[in-house]
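Q: I'm writing up a methods section and want to include an example of the input and output format. Could you take the sequence below and give the corresponding predicted C-alpha cells, formatted cleanly so I can copy it straight into the document?
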Amino acid sequence: MRISISGLSVFALGALLAAGAAAAAGGNAAQAQARYKQDVAACRSGPAYQDRAACLREAGAALEEAKRGRLANDNSAYEQNRLRRCEPLPPGDREDCVRRMHGEGTVSGSVESGGTLRELRTIEPAK
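A: Here is the clean output for your methods example:
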C-alpha cells in the first residue's frame, strides 16, 4: 500500500529540513551547501511514502533561505507554539501541561501513528 504525502508529512519533512538548514543559517554559504547535500541524501534514502520530488524542493528552498539568512537558528517559535497549547487550560492543569511540554513524564506514539500522547503522573498525598 502506498501512502500519498499528506499535509502532516509535508510539515514534518519541512520542519526536519528547515531545522537542518537553520544550523547552516548562522554560518557561511559553504556550511549551507554542506547541509543541503545532507538533506538531498536524506531525501534519496527516505521512506517509500515520502514524496521525493517535494523533499528535494524543500531542501533547495531551505538552502536558499539559509543563504539569505532567513532561517531562525533557534527553537523559540516552536517552544512558544508548544506552550500556547496549555494556555486555555485551568491553572492547575496548565502547570501540568507545561511540565509535560518540557519533557517531564512519558511520551508514546508517533506522528505516523496519528499523534503523540504525553503523560505525567502526579502523586498527591491523601487529605
